[in-house]
Amino acid sequence: MEAFSLQPEKWVILYGDYLYSLAMMKTGSRETSQDLVQETFLSAVKAKDTFNGLSSEKTWLTAILRNKVIDFYRKKDVLKNASDYLADTEASFHAAFFDSAVDSYGHWRQDTAPRAWAESADAAMKRKEFYKILQYCIDKMPPRLIPAFVAKYIDEEDTEKICKELDLSSSNYWVMVHRAKVLMRSCLEKNWFLEER
Amino acid sequence: MGIYLFRKVVFNCKKATLLGLKKNDGTASLWEELQLFYHNLYCNSCRRFIKQSKEIDILLANITGQEHENPTHTLPDQVKNNLQAQIDQHRK
């Protein structure tokens, strides 16, 4: 198998906008994203002798950016006091989707229970406009839920690794991922899957 | 007590959907899987949630590739030139 090689002279053209877009999705801030992309390229070029050629240049740079984003999360408030944040927002999340009468057990509210979709996910995948809606739904998500959500569903890392990296207990992690998923499904349903195309 | 537990499992969609995600992740315990199975016997909505959730997973996993082909955001030219100049400085 031929090993991959690095071409730093083409990095900005080939991966600049790509890495910038990933950073925007994960942090929501232009300034932060530009800084993170810069740090990624500089760390990469300094470490270019350690590149082993087993993964592609793109995969390698994506992994470096991922670590930069996690460092950024650690320095910010998004990961702090997760239990307090989740406890404080529990009632409003519950009331938005589930029955909150005193005697109830948390059944879906009638108006938010999942409905049958007009278009399959397979068909949506092939449409460019769909990814705009997907972006929109990520942007709308509470910032505190983003790190766990992105690590699990976009970076596809495994649960144990994510909990360690983000310093989350397994139960807080699941509550975050669950909330994010309920919000995401509902947002996609409202803005895409119920509409006839 | 029996009835209370029964209701807690059968009617609690918030818990059932969370367990559904855990099951898809392969990290649900046997007891959690049993509760979910039991809940889903009665609950159409949660069965649907879990099915749609798996479809969404595939779409989400695709985003990285999409961003490579068609980036949502574009760095300003000036920033790009600046970045490449910095890289060039270090690569020699």
TrEMBL record, chain A:
Classification via Pfam families: Sigma70_r2, Sigma70_r4_2
Protein's UniProt keywords contain Iron: no
Keyword Nucleotidyltransferase recorded: no
GO biological process terms on file: DNA-templated transcription initiation
Span of domain RNA polymerase sigma-70 region: 15-77
A molecular function (GO) term: sigma factor activity
InterPro entries: RNA_pol_sigma-70-like (IPR039425), RNA_pol_sigma-70_dom (IPR014284), RNA_pol_sigma70_r2 (IPR007627), RNA_pol_sigma70_r4_t2 (IPR013249), RNA_pol_sigma_r2 (IPR013325), RNA_pol_sigma_r3/r4-like (IPR013324)
Domain of life: Bacteria
Ranges for domain RNA polymerase sigma factor 70 region 4 type: 133-182
UniProt keyword annotations, A-Z: DNA-binding, Sigma factor, Transcription, Transcription regulation
Entries under PANTHER family matching the protein: RNA POLYMERASE ECF-TYPE SIGMA FACTO (PTHR43133), RNA POLYMERASE SIGMA FACTOR HI_1459-RELATED (PTHR43133:SF8)
Family under the similarity heading: Belongs to the sigma-70 factor family. ECF subfamily.
Name the record gives this protein: Sigma-70 family RNA polymerase sigma factor
Organism: Chryseosolibacter histidini
